[in-house]
Amino acid sequence: MVVNHQKDIISIKDLSKKDIDYILKVAEKMEPIARSKKRSTVLGGKMLGMLFYEPSTRTRISFETAMKRLGGSTIGFLEAGVSSATKGENLHDTAKIISEYADAIVIRHNMEGAARYVADSVDVPVINAGDGAGQHPTQTLLDLYTMKRIVGKTKDLHVSLVGDLKYGRTVHSLAYALAMFGVDMSFISPRELRMPKDVLHDLSKLGVSVEETENINSVLDKSDVLYVTRIQKERFPDPEEYSKIKDAYMIDLKLLKGTDLIVMHPLPRVNEIAYEVDNTPYGRYFEQAFYGVPVRMAILDLLIKNSEEI
Ligand code: CP
Question: Which of the listed residues 26, 30, 89, 157 has the most CB atoms within 10 Å of its CB?
C-alpha cells in the first residue's frame, strides 16, 4: 500500500491503481465520520501544516475539516502575504520550518514543481494541493471516489473532459488516472486550450486513444460523465486571448436534455455551468466537493499514521 513505499503524494503518477483502489476503500470507511455520524480521534495529537501560496476554498477547508474530524489540528498560512516570504524567505526554508512543527505538509503553489521541491527538502509527508498548471492529485482521488459513489464504478466508463485542458491541473491528473483504469475519454476544448502534448504523448504510450474535439455536442450521447472545468483567467499570459475564449462552453439544461450523464466540476465555476443544472440529477459537483473530506481523511490517515483503526 501507498504508505509502505511512498511518503508523498505529488503526482497521481506516484500512485498505482492498487494504491488508488485502497485509498477509495478507506475513504468509504471515513464517510460516516465525515458526515458526523461517527467520531474518531485517530489523528489525535497530530498536526497538519498548510502552506497555501495560492487561493483555495475547497482543498484547504476540506483538508482542515478532514484533519479535525480525525481529532488532529492544523497550522499554517492561507496566503504568502502573511508569511515571512514577504521578507525574502525562500520556499525551502519555510517548508523546513513547518516540517519541524507538523507531521505532514499540504502545499498549494503557483509554480509547477513546487510541491516536488518541498517533498525533496523535508522529511515529513508532503501532499500536493495544486502546483500551477501541473497536477492536483487529491482532487483526482475525490473525482474517482465521486464516480464510484454516484455512477457505481471507476471503469467501463466514458468520461469527457471539457474546457481549459491546457492549464487545468485537475484534468491533467484525472486523465492519467482514468487511463490507469482503462476509461474511454474525450477531450473537448477550444483549439488554444488543448490538452498539453506531453500528457497526450504519455497517454498514447499507455495505449490509450483519446478523441479530441471542439464540438461538445458530438460527445454527449456516449458520455457517462461530463467533467467541466473553468477557463483559468489567471494562467493566461495575454488577457485578450482569455476574453476571446472565456465563454467557449455553457452547460445548460437545453444541452443536457435527453442525455444520461452526470456533470462534475472541480469548482470554482464562473460561467460554464448554468445554475438551473444545480438541482437536477445531472449536477453532482456539490456532492463531489463533499467527497473531498472522506478522501482527504483517508489520505491523511494513511500518510500520517496508517492506523486502520478507524
Ligand atoms: N477544486 C479546487 O481545487 O478548489 P479550490 O481552488 O477552491 O481549492
Answer: 30
